[in-house]
Specification:
9 strands; two-stranded parallel sheet; binds 1,4-dihydronicotinamide adenine dinucleotide; alpha/beta; 7-stranded parallel beta sheet; binds D-galactaro-1,5-lactone; globular; Rossmann fold; 263 residues
Length: 263
């Protein structure tokens, strides 16, 4: 099935904004939803404000959609009440709304934090069981299971993206492993909108030399990342060195400027 009518939740956020720009004008309808105000700027865009915690509103939101890209939620660690309300109930509401509306597929923004308690000498695949590092990571592991329920029981194709660090460029040593370029993020979502799958979990990561994740499941679906964090390795090492010097000396951030001493 070709998706023509697409809903993006969390459309006003960092990833939503990237996606919105890349998908503008390419579909019959791009329904953009968030709790923060937005304005339609391109043909085919429709703004649909909605709190994901409101089940009835989310049901209406999903009406008439072929595909949902579910980015909305809290993207960092915080207390249980907000996690339960937004990431847990919000994701349940989204899948329930998708089921009522007969949505064909949902792309769910999971996170590397669903598996964040594995040591970094372990190579993981999308099949590696969750080992969450936080309440936040646990909500993403839960979301992956919600996706499985609605995929196998209700026929909603579900692609879960364990996204690494989606940034303009890697800005620390860890990101040399976890970086997902903006363009590769869009490529991966495009795969999610077109490929044939039932329930898949893949990593949202570029083709990084130092990646901790074997993403062959994503490659099988047709994902072809073109970026590699290694290009930024020297720049990142210089940032790390400056941070280390600032930590070592009382002068802090003044010290790394023009620093040459080896004594
Ligand atoms: P963001 O915080 O910029 O965007 C999330 C959006 O969700 C915001 O615009 C916010 O207003 C909206 N939102 C929050 N609560 C809501 C509610 N109750 N109802 C409706 N909308 C609500 O986060 P970002 O970075 O764009 O992340 C998008 C998704 O991708 C998140 O689910 C995040 O967990 C996931 N992710 C992002 C990564 C990254 O590198 N940016 C890495 C791993 C996962
Ligand atoms: C995430 O899940 C967060 O949403 C994002 O802000 C980054 O912290 C990212 O993971 C990461 O691990 O770098």
């Amino acid at each position: 099935m070709t998706s023509k009518r697409i809903l993006i939740t969390g459309a006003a956020g960092r990833l939503g904004t990237i996606l919105r720009q890349s998908l503008a004008g390419r579909f019959e309808l791009l329904r953009l939803s968030d709790i923060v105000p937005m304005t339609a700027t391109a043909e085919g865009e429709q703004i649909a404000p909605c709190d994901l915690a409101d089940a009835a509103a989310v049901r209406d939101l999903c009406e008439g959609m072929d595909a949902v890209i579910h980015l909305g939620g809290i993207p960092y660690e915080t207390g249980w009440s907000e996690m339960l309300r937004t990431n847990i109930a919000g994701t349940v509401n989204l899948y329930e709304g998708a089921r009522h509306a007969g949505v064909d597929r949902v792309i769910f923004a999971s996170s590397n934090h669903a598996t964040g308690m594995y040591p970094n000498d372990r190579t993981l695949t999308g099949g590696s069981p969750p080992r969450p590092d936080s309440r936040y990571g646990l909500t993403k592991a839960f979301g992956e299971d919600v996706a499985a329920l609605y995929a196998y029981k209700h026929g909603i194709r579900s692609l879960c993206l364990r996204i690494g660090s989606c940034l303009p460029k890697p800005d620390n040593r860890r990101a040399l492993s976890t970086w997902l370029s903006h363009k590769d993020f869009v490529r991966l979502v495009e795969v999610g909108l077109t490929a044939d799958y039932v329930h898949e979990i893949v990593y949202g990561v570029s083709r990084n030399t130092r990646s901790w994740w074997d993403n062959s499941a994503a490659y099988r679906l047709g994902y072809e990342p073109l970026d590699n964090a290694e290009v930024y390795a020297a720049e990142v090492e210089s940032i790390e060195l400056k941070a280390e010097l600032a930590r070592l000396y009382q002068g802090g951030n003044f010290v790394p400027e023009e620093f040459t001493s080896r004594r």
